[in-house]
Write a structure and sequence with these properties.
The protein is α/β, with parallel strands linked by helices. Helices cover 25% and strands 28% of the residues. The longest helix has 17 residues. Bound molecules: D-[(amino)carbonyl]phenylalanine. The site of D-[(amino)carbonyl]phenylalanine (ING) has 10 residues, from strand 8. Keywords: Hydrolase. Pfam families: CN_hydrolase.
């Protein structure tokens, strides 16, 4: 069996004033703990280098740019790559990406997959952007991802590494079945993702009270229906006054939760993931080739 001992490195709050160096030190500390537990891969969270800045209307472009990475790695993030290489462990890192193409600034909510030699072997840009592109009245905190990021332009690719087929998603992507299915159709063995999930997203108290239930429901369904592992890593706790859910998990292709965080702080959870566990599902219940009828699914891509 292809075993991959995997860590989800949940993060507690990152304050607005925290420096990249401070945050990288926290990530390095959790990477060391993951390695000490025998992990070959550690999954960090969405926007793991800064506070969740889309909660604010930021009018000043220079201030907005300060939350993005213009290069990866940079001097501030190089220590994370160096430590990964020294320890011989791969990692997945979410960050705000700023690129200039043909003189135009483009902004993405991005995540990368780095192998145990410190080489970037995969990149994904968040497709499903929740929230708004302009401030909404009456909200204690905004959710301006549609203002600060473009929808991802890389699709849902998969990458060979760590002995299997690896896929990435980011936060709101985990709520959409298409995310997992496009990767499932490419034979993905493990989908890794980070999330920043405020409890006050909808303003509807009944829905907000189900935030953590919907978090696990989304990832367990995605895992089971595509016979893949799902690693979901939270940024959580009360960050600059905004309360965000934790309960990071590692979900098996059966849909079972095999590891779960119990704090709302920096916490490493781990599991020995058998990448062959999905095979029985892919050969029976979810044998896509034998059972799917795409001729009846057109509405999904036509609407
Ligand atoms: N955050 C949230 C997420 O999809 C949200 C937005 C919160 C949607 C609660 C629905 C309910 O988990 C990000 N960053 O996508």
């Amino acid at each position: 069996a292809r075993h991959l001992i995997t860590a989800a490195a949940q993060m507690g709050p990152i304050s607005r004033s925290e420096t990249r160096a401070d945050t990288v030190r926290r990530l390095v500390e959790m990477m060391r703990e993951a390695k000490a537990r025998g992990c070959g891969l550690v999954v960090f969270t969405e926007l793991a280098l800064t506070t969740f800045f889309p909660r604010w209307m930021i009018g000043d472009e220079a201030e907005l740019d300060s939350f993005y990475e213009a290069e990866m790695p940079s001097a501030a993030t190089q220590p994370l790559f160096d430590e990964a290489k020294r320890l011989g462990i791969g990692f997945n890192l979410g960050y705000a990406e700023l690129v200039v193409e043909a003189g135009v600034k483009r902004r993405f909510n991005t995540t990368i997959l780095v192998d145990a030699t410190g080489r970037i072997i995969g990149k994904y840009r968040k497709v499903h952007l929740p929230g708004h592109d302009a401030p909404q009245a009456g909200r204690a905190f905004q959710h301006l991802e549609k203002r600060y990021f473009e929808p991802g332009d890389l699709g849902f690719p998969v990458f060979r590494g760590f002995g299997g087929v690896m896929g990435m998603a980011i936060c709101n992507d985990r709520r959409w079945p298409e995310t997992y299915r496009v990767m499932g159709l490419q034979g993905v063995d493990m989908v890794m993702l980070g999330y920043n999930t405020p409890f006050d997203h909808t303003g509807d108290e009944a829905v907000n009270s189900l935030t953590l239930f919907h978090n696990h429901l989304s990832m367990q369904a995605g895992a089971y229906q595509n016979a893949t592992w799902v690693v979901g890593t939270a940024k959580c706790g009360t960050e600059e006054g905004s309360k965000m859910g934790g309960q990071s998990v590692i979900v098996a292709p059966s849909g079972e939760i095999v590891a779960q965080a119990v704090t709302v702080e920096d916490e490493v959870i781990t599991a020995k993931c058998d990448l062959d566990m999905g095979r029985i599902y892919k050969e029976t219940i979810f044998n896509f080739a034998r059972h799917r009828r795409p001729e009846h699914y057109r509405l999904i891509v036509e609407r």
